[in-house]
Amino acid sequence: MLDTWVGASPRRDLIxxxxxxxxxxxxxxxxxxxxxxxxxxxxxLFHSQMPTNRPTILVRxxxxxxxxIPASHPWHVWTNAHNSIFMKYLNVLPDxxxxxxxxxxxxxxxxxRCVSGxxxxxxxxxxxxDMDLIDQMSGVTPRGKTVxxxxxxxxxxxxxLAIFNVSSRPLTDLIPLSVFPGADPRIHYVVRAHTxxxxxxxxxxxxxxxxxxxxxxxxxxxxFSAFPLTSLSSKKHGDISIANLGLLGKMAGAAAIxxxxxxxxxxxxxxxxxxxxxxxxxxxxVSSLPTMTIDGDFLITIQEKVIPVHTVAxxxxxxxxxxxxxxxxxxxxxxxSRWSNDVEVKVFLSI
Length: 351
What we know:
This protein is α+β, with helices and mostly antiparallel strands. Helices cover about 20% and strands about 30% of the residues. It folds into two domains: about 1-135, no CATH class; about 160-350, no CATH class. The chain starts with 7 loop residues before the first helix and ends with a strand.
């Protein structure tokens, strides 16, 4: 509509009024649940998308999703990622558009949406849905609700970095820990790859060897999550390290961690206390796990109740990772949600 105004005077007098009226209408009639599409033009960028004295606007971050144009998919993710570098300074929530879960680029798009910080929504053909992929993107709370997105910073201290192959050939590259957003040079991390489940050795930014190898096929992607380590001394196992890996099998499983703390008890046990937002498989990295047994060295509770031993296992992808099936244990024990609608898991281990 704005392009129909040929004269300079109407543009000068009416554009800001038009944009303000649109914003007020979305607040009044839709409670800000509207997408501002085709609005990456200077008048909108530097007027309605600048003020911080109004609710954040949901803004389309690039062009649309075109399922039948193969070349558009790498370009779509590349463009959205670069536009977000600029858009993060505005009072907007970037929208990377919808996508299909049954598509040759479905995982590629899903991973991009999960790290975008924006909303996730799909446009599947009726009856054609990849439920496994949907499960990787979502989580169900104890009250049966799907965890929604939110606009704000995470305080759990888990840097996340996603890589995508936007070329037409397989690629391999070395990725330093220093490029992970929010990585602290004073902290040692283990880095877990979502698609393979592999966990790195302990690394830090100051370590010259803190390089990760990323090998991606055409249409390939990977999501790396870095988890801070807590170091402890053990008479039985020597120096050991522990990290909370969040919900395994979720693309943004690190974001499921609501709270996490490690406490060393006087009785020779260590307690990892964590609260997560949804059901799933909780992962705990323990450097000495290959020399330990689940029956002899671990006691795990959910909502202060000891869970069945068969709901706990050592990961097949990495023998330093303990897997706790929260959903299975919850169902078998007949637990009910609390007022906070999250799940508290305590892991006690003998050191």
